[in-house]
Amino acid sequence: MSFDYDLVVIGAGSGGVRAARMAATYGAKVAVVEEFRVGGTCVIRGCVPKKLYVYASRFSDQFDIAESFGWNVEARFDWPTLVAAKEKEITRLEHAYTSNLEKPGVEIIRDRAVITGPNSVRLVQGDRELTSKYLLVATGARPSIPDIPGAEFGITSNVAFDLPSLPKSILIEGGGYIAVEFATIFAGLGVDTTIVYRGNCILRGFDEDMKRGLEAGLTERGVRVIYQTTIASLAKPGDDVMVTFSDGVSAPYGAVMFATGRRPNTDGLGLETAGVELAGNGAIPVDKYSQTSVPSVYAVGDVTGRAQLTPVAIREGWYFAETVFNNNPQVVDHSLIPTAVFSEPEIGVIGLTEEEAATHGDIDVYVARFRPMQNTLSTRTERMVLKLITEKNGGRVLGVHILGPSAAEMIQLVAVAMGMNATKADFDRAIALHPSAAEELVTFKAPSYSYRDCKKV
Ligand code: NDP
User: Fold this and answer.
1) Residue to substitute in 14, 214, 260, 314 for testing ligand 1 pocket (most ligand atoms within 8 angstroms of CB)
2) pLDDT band, very low/low/confident/very high, at 360 (cuts 50, 70, 90)
3) Cα separations (Å) of 14 from 20, 97, 311, 317, 376?
4) Closest residue by Cα to residue 280 from 297, 268, 263, 259
5) Of 90, 120, 198, 299, which is the most buried if we count CB atoms within 10 A?
6) What is the per-residue pLDDT across 44-94, written as a single tens digit (0 to 9) for each?
7) Which protein residues are within 6 Å of ligand 1, measured from CB?
C-alpha cells in the first residue's frame, strides 16, 4: 500500500520537531502539522520565555546586594521592554526551528490535524486528507484549570508572559514548578505575590530540605504562601479579581493565575477513530518504543504523560526515529532524570529524595548548609543547601539535591556521574575547585546522619 508520507507528525514542539528532523535525515518523507507556532510550549510559552523572565526578576536580588560591593544603583523596571525583547528572541528561535525542519526536507503544514484512521489525518482548514505509513502524536499538554465558578477570570502560563501590564498583585494557585517559578518572576519584578496551595508544603515529592528551603527563600522575597486552601470561586466586579477561598475568606487581587498542572492535548484529536487507547487523564499510553495500542501510531512528549520535560520529549522523539526509521531500536531510560526549578533560590535535583532512599535500604546522608559566597559581604542570611545521599559506607550515590545559585548547572554534571553509577569514593577522588559551591559535593568527610533499618541514626 502506498502513502503520501512515511511519517506525519502532529505538533511542532520539542518532541515532534526532533522526531521529524531525525526521520527526514534517515531518508523518510515527513510532514509536520502545527496549528500554532513552530517550537511548541518550551520555546513559545514555556521554558525559554520563563528563563528569560527569571533572569529579569533576579536583578532585584542583585540590586539588593550591589551596595555591599560598592555599587550605587537606581533601578526602574519596564515590563513592555521585557515582553518585546522576549518576543524578539522566541521569534528568532521559531525561525531557527523552522529552518532546522526544512533543511532535511520536512514539509511544515500550518493547520490542525485530526486523525481519521491508523494511517490518515484530515487537515481542518485545508480540508484534505493525508495518508502516512506512520503517525506521531506530539501535541503536548495544556494548562488544566479547576472547574470553579468564575474560572474564566483567571489566567494561565499561556498568557502570563504577554500581559498588557504588570498587575499590582497576583494570586497563584498551585504548589508545583510553574507556581513557584512564576511566583519568583512576579515577586522579583515587584508584584505583591501570593501562592495558594491545597497541600501543606510546596513542591510535593521533592526532598524536604529543598521544599522548606524554597519556602523560606520565597517568603524572604515577600511571597505569601497560604496552605491547605484552594480557590473556591472568582468574580470580577471591577478592575480586580475577587477571590473567594475554600475557607470562606474573600480578597481582591490584580490577577489570578492557575498553575494547577497540565493536561495532555488529546481532546478532539480523533485518536478513538484510529482505535488508540487513552488513559483516564487523557494521556496516550505507549510502550518503551513510544508505540501506542495501534502499531502505526506513536506518541512522544507530554501527551504520553511520562515526564513532562522538554529534554525527555526530545530524547523520545529522537529514539522513535532511530527505532522506526534507522533500524536501530532505542529505549529511553526514564529512571534518572535531572530536573531544575528555576525559582529563587534555584533547585537542581536528581535521583532519590532522602525520604525515598531511606525506605530502599541503609543510606548515608551528607548535608552542607552555608551562605553563598556572593552574600557574605551583604546582610543576606539565606543559606545554600547541598545534599548527597549514598548507599551506606560510601556506596553508590543515590540522590543529589541542591538549593541555591547555579543548582541547575551543577546537577546537569552530577547526572553524568550518577549515570555511570558513581560512588562516594568517585566523588571524593575529584579534586575540589575552589572557591565554588560545588566543591562541597566532593569534600564531604563523615555523613551528617544515616538511616539504618529505615531509622535515622
Ligand atoms: P505540577 O504538577 O508540578 O503542579 C501542579 C500543582 O497544582 C500541584 O501543586 C497540585 O497539587 C496543584 N493542583 C492540581 N490540581 C489542582 C486543583 N484542582 N486544585 C488545586 N490545586 C491543584 O504542574 P505545573 O503546572 O506546575 O507544571 C506542569 C509540569 O510541567 C511539571 O510537572 C513539570 O514536569 C513541567 N515543568 C517543568 C519545569 C522545569 O523543568 N523547570 C518548569 C515548568 C513546568 P498537589 O501537589 O496536591 O498535586
Assistant:
1) 260
2) confident
3) 10, 9, 8, 8, 40
4) 263
5) 299
6) 999 999 999 999 999 999 999 999 999 999 999 999 999 999 999 999 999
7) 146, 173-179, 181, 197-199, 204, 230, 259-262, 308-309, 339-342
Cite the residue boundaries of each domain of the chain with CATH code 3.50.50.60. Answer: 5-142+263-325, 151-260
Angle at 47 between CA 53 and CA 408, to 5 degrees: 90
Name the fold adopted by 5-142+263-325: FAD/NAD(P)-binding domain (3.50.50)
- The structure's pTM equals 0.97
Q: Give CA–CA dist 391/422, Å, rounded.
A: 11
Instruction: Check if the beta carbon of residue 37 is closer than 8 Å to that of residue 16.
Output: no
Out of 3.50.50.60, 3.30.1050.10, 3.40.190.10, 3.30.1490.190, which CATH number does the structure's domain 151-260 have?
Answer: 3.50.50.60
Q: Which of 260, 297, 259, 266 shows the shortest CA–CA distance to 281?
A: 266
State the Cα–Cα distance between residues 51 and 63, nearest whole angstrom. 19
